[in-house]
Amino acid sequence: MAGPSIRTEDLVRRYDPQKRALRLGRFRRGRDRDEAERAQAPVLALAGVSLEVREGELFGLLGPNGAGKTTLIKILSTLLLPTSGRAWVDGLDVTRDVYAVRRRINMVSGGETSGYGILTVRENLWLFSQLYGVPSQEALARIDRLLDVVELAEKAGAKMNRLSTGQRQKLNFARGFVSDPKVLFLDEPTLGLDVGVARRIRAFVRQWVHERPGRTLLLTTHYMAEADELCDRVAIIDRGRVLACDTPSRLKRQVESDTLVRLELAWTPGADAEEAVRAVRGIPEVVRVGSAEDAASGHTRLDLILRNEAAIDPVFRHLAGNGGRVLSFSKAEPTLEDVFLKLVGRRLTEGTPGSPSGTRNGQGTGDLASGSSGATVAGAGEAASSADGEAPGTERDQETARAEGGWPT
Ligand SMILES: Nc1ncnc2c1ncn2[C@@H]1O[C@H](COP(=O)(O)OP(=O)(O)OP(=O)(O)O)[C@@H](O)[C@H]1O
Questions:
Q1: Probe ligand 1: pick from 24, 70, 238, max atoms within 8 Å of CB?
Q2: Ligand 1 pocket, 396 CB below 6 A?
Q3: Is the domain of 54 the same as that of 201?
Q4: Can you tell me the distance from the alpha carbon of 290 to that of 356, in angstroms, rounded to the nearest whole number?
Q5: Which residues lie within the region annotated Disordered (predicted)?
Q6: Could you tell me the distance, in angstroms and rounded to a whole number, from the CA of residue 188 to the centre of ligand 1?
Q7: Are residues 240 and 269 in the same domain?
Q8: Core-most of 77, 81, 337, 344, by most CB within 10 Å?
């Protein structure tokens, strides 16, 4: 692998709520104005991020909602200025060489459905390919391939405004690859997609990076399994800070000294098996996995983290001494969730609606909007309004950017 394709140096981004409140007051009335008035403290979305992504790498930013992932991607894709610090993409400064950066990149935001409603699926992809100057034969072949990957071939002749939300999202994903960019930013690419399509997309993403020399892909996700399965390296990010950055396997090795055990117990109906296990020394964490109904019927499943394997013996003895019976037990492999838990002290999926918190291998369902926006068109218009340093992501940013040709709607 070659030198860094993406580099950030002590990147800070603060959102100033006063500016935002003023803007909302100026441009909108009613409910949003109330919301603006409620905003009080500045938000430090990035608190000094220094990262290097190598050319040819599939790099993941893994973090919970609000961690700063989209903010970082917006800065790298020239849609937003940092408050301080510097960033380079393909050796170019993202704040000074805006057009040159845009010619080399593309960006897809999973929660977004960009394109032109009155054009068909194929026409949309053709339009974007031509904006990037892709030669005709190459563009046609690429479009066919991408339609196949996202399973939209049957809808190739359908107008975009006749597509479902998921189908628009697939079209948006295909749009990101149609220019065959040198550096691609994917912000939550599989958000809300059904399992089969998400799997196909992940396979395509992996193949795209590894079969094309010189391509780099930066992906954000709050799905641990996605980061684990796809990425060469992962940065775990929380509250605007990078907490760890390494290959998934080396990150998981950090928690390998702990032993993860799943127990299935026959237990006194209604009694608290979790509490009983907590009483044993050397058990830093116990998580109930089985349901309350299971517990009421005298059947319980627990996940335990043990400081070392030897601690399992006292657990068995304690359970036997309290009328319990171990039906089965298995050792679990550590996941990135365990790394996150160790680094941050809470689960990645905690507080995420639809996510099965409390499961060791649990993964969010991803039905949330990412709140992110934007796709860049190479060489088109001025830098998006966000790049004036004002808070991005508001309607004003999108309106101004549209007017300036900054990104398609
Ligand atoms: N335009 C904005 N104005 C004010 N605060 C913002 C704005 N955009 C983002 N933020 C805040 O900055 C922080 C980081 O947001 P960001 O969207 O970068 O996080 P994220 O990791 O992408 O989250 P998610 O997974 O939910 O998309 C959050 O606290 C968010 O509320």
A1: 70
A2: no
A3: yes
A4: 12
A5: 349-409
A6: 14
A7: no
A8: 77
Which of 183, 218, 247 is a domain's end point?
A: 247
Question: Is residue 200 located within the same domain as residue 335?
Answer: no
Whole-angstrom distance, CA of residue 351 vs CA of residue 94: 34
End residue of a domain, out of 344, 368, 385: 344
Could you list the pLDDT tens digit for every one of the 409 residues in the chain? 456 899 999 999 999 876 655 555 555 555 565 665 555 678 999 999 999 999 999 999 998 888 999 999 999 999 999 999 999 999 999 999 999 999 999 999 877 778 888 999 999 999 999 999 999 999 999 999 999 999 999 999 999 999 998 899 999 999 999 999 999 999 988 887 888 888 888 999 999 998 888 899 999 987 888 888 899 999 999 999 999 999 998 988 877 767 778 888 888 877 777 777 777 776 666 666 666 667 677 788 887 777 777 777 888 888 888 888 888 888 777 788 888 877 877 777 654 433 333 333 333 323 222 223 333 333 333 333 333 343 333 333 333 333 333 322 2
Query: In total, how many domains does the chain have?
Result: 2
Best residue among 24, 40, 65 to mutate for probing ligand 1, ranked by most atoms within 8 Å of CB: 65
Query: Whose Cα sits closest to atom 26 in ligand 1?
Result: 65
CA-proximal residue: ligand 1, atom 6 (nearest): 15
Whether 287 and 239 map to the same domain: the answer is no
- Same domain for 224 and 315? no
- Please state, in angstroms and rounded to a whole number, the distance separating the CA atoms of residues 102 and 99: 5
DSSP assignments along 99-112, one per residue: HHHHHHEEEEETT-
Whose Cα sits closest to atom 12 in ligand 1?
45
How far is Cα 181 from Cα 176, in angstroms, rounded to an integer? 8
CATH code, domain with 112: 3.40.50.300
Q: The pTM is what?
A: 0.72
State the residue range of the domain holding 168: 4-20+40-247
274 and 302 in a single domain? The answer is yes
Return d(Cα 221, Cα 370) in angstroms, integer: 10
Q: Which of 106, 89, 128 lies closest to 187 in space, CA to CA?
A: 106
Does 222 share its domain with 265? Answer: no
Residues 16 and 165 in one domain: yes
Asked, for residue 387, whether it belongs to a domain, the answer is no
Distance in angstroms (rounded) separating the CA atoms of residues 52 and 378: 23
Cα 68 to ligand 1 centre (Å): 6
